[in-house]
Amino acid sequence: MNMKILLKNANIFDGKNNEIKSGDIIIDGGFIQSITKNIETIDKNTQVIDLQGKYVMPGLIDAHVHITASRIDLNQDYEYPGYMYARSFHFLKDMINRGFTSVRDAGGADVGIKTAVEEGVVLSPRLFISGRALSQTGGHGDYRHNSSEMVTCACSLCTGSSISVICDGVPAVRQAAREQFRIGASQIKIMAGGGISSPTDKIDNLQYSDDEIIAIVDEATRFHSYVMAHAYTPQAIIRCVNLGVKTIEHGNLLDAESAQAMFNNKAYLVPTLSIYNAFMMNKDDSDSGIPESVVEKLEEVQSQAIKSINLARKYNVKIGLGTDLLGEYHNFQYDEFKLRSQVESAFDTLHSATYVNAEILNMQGKLGIVDVHAFADLIILENNPLEDISVFSDKRDQVLMVIKNGDIVKNLIS
Fold it and tell me: Can you say how many angstroms the Cα of residue 307 is from the centroid of all Cα atoms in its chain?
């Protein structure tokens, strides 16, 4: 537990700069203590690992996960909570073994899961939770069937899903935002437009009034936090960033005007390509568990997802990285790197998955970078990730070591 470690003869990609530097890294107390060259004198209690030129980089960060989404269908009315939590722990263990040392849950994970992670009950990345995403009645996040009873209280948990809560009107959204923070949320997620997985809304629906979004942003700001918003269309994106939302999730239908608005407001885009790719690959499989309502709306947003990244780059919008995977599709987490490689360099993608995502989490200088005083959240690779992004592939396990908070949690180095 937090043993002093010396990583000798490392090739270092720091997450911030498009270059590789050689050096020795000393880890102590969960932090990077120093980065230097040719260390000769070391404490006898230090564990020395000679990397012999292997590559060290920051642990990966996935800024959009749903760890309680244990099935493809988000209508979870009849899901057993115990099963859902057990599956969550399984997903988290797989994520850290892939090299993701931090993840941001975009709706579903609760303080119980967060506590289990923080106390080391389960092997897991660092977890930044949103609690339940805020949704208006009939919006993305309201997974009830049309025949379901009307919500009768101001802030209902009866959405048909573990990932969201229904709240309508300024007093209700304020209360719901405060409630998420009360139970341990790091940030607030809102459903600001239609989605493909919700049964009753259209993709181009604008959800929540300006006053409601302003109130939610105000609550987050006073908690020294921020708001992330599910939004596909230009109209939804523009109004969100103009009202103070920090990150746009998905943003598939981004256009020039909305990209400019994002840049002007210093907002971040978090694309999630892998979920659409997984849906498209399996949409014709009757056993896939994909609801028919999802298939009908899928092509509307999937076809432009790659283009949105190009456009965001053109307008100098900062781009993070997320996956948004559900159920068994969690195994496709590495697909995000392969899909992004169609339109950007390996550095751009890895910069998104480390340094930029740390900024999104308000953890700049602590996560997403190999630097003195940063958390010792590191992964070690055989090959140079800046030359070949396919080091992140399920074809063979090239993540040889994972270090989280100064502890070695995975080690394939003999």
Answer: 20
Q: What is the pLDDT of residue 153?
A: 45
Comparing C-alpha atoms, which of 363, 357, 353 is closest to residue 389? 353
Give the 3-state DSSP-derived string for 40-77, with helices as H, strands as E and coil as C: CCCCCCCEEEECCCCEEEECEEEEEECCCCCCCCCCCC
Mention the CATH class of domain 5-58+370-411: mainly beta
Helices (H), 100-169: 111-118
Number of H helices and E strands in the chain, helices first, is: 12, 19
Amino acid at residue number 329 = Y
- The residue whose two tokens read 């009849």 is 78
Closest among 237, 294, 236, 226 to 71, alpha carbons compared: 294
Most confidently predicted of 110-114, 200-204, 291-295: 110-114
Q: Which strand ranges, in their side-by-side order, compose the sheet holding 126-128?
A: 60-65, 100-105, 126-128
Which one of 3.30.1360.120, 3.40.50.1820, 3.20.20.140, 2.30.30.240 gives the CATH number of domain 60-333? 3.20.20.140
Write the burial class of residue 403 (CB in 10 Å: 0-12 exposed, 13-18 middle, 19+ buried): buried
What is the tens place of the pLDDT at every residue in 331-389?
999 999 999 999 999 999 999 999 999 999 999 999 999 999 999 999 999 999 999 99
Predicted TM-score (pTM) of the model is 0.94
Q: In the chain, what are the domain boundaries?
A: 5-58+370-411, 60-333
